[in-house]
Amino acid sequence: MDLPWTLSLYFITWWMVLFAILPLGVRSHHDEGTTPGAGHDPGAPVNPNLKKKAITTSWVTAVIIAVVWIIARFNLVQLPH
Questions:
Q1: Within a domain: residue 78?
Q2: Do residues 57 and 18 make contact, with C-beta atoms less than 8 angstroms apart?
Q3: How high is the pLDDT of residue 79?
Q4: Cα-to-chain-centroid distance, residue 8
Q5: Rounded distance, CA 67 to CA 2, Å?
Q6: What is d(CA 52, CA 63) in angstroms, rounded to the nearest whole number?
Q7: In this structure, are residues 29 and 48 in contact, taking their beta carbons and an 8 Å threshold?
Q8: For the chain, what is the domain count?
């Protein structure tokens, strides 16, 4: 696995993992029982924790890419060339 291939795989996997992690732990104004400000959606998250989710997404993706790299490097699964 060369570097451009690995980086492109990381980028694509990062976005897929992000969309899987985004809904975790989200509480809306409706769930919290609070009234949102004027013009705000009651289903919008109170605190989306985007920084924490971006960091979590990065390390989860790094683990996934490491497993894929090990599989490809040691030919644990035969991939077509």
A1: no
A2: yes
A3: 66
A4: 15
A5: 15
A6: 17
A7: no
A8: 1
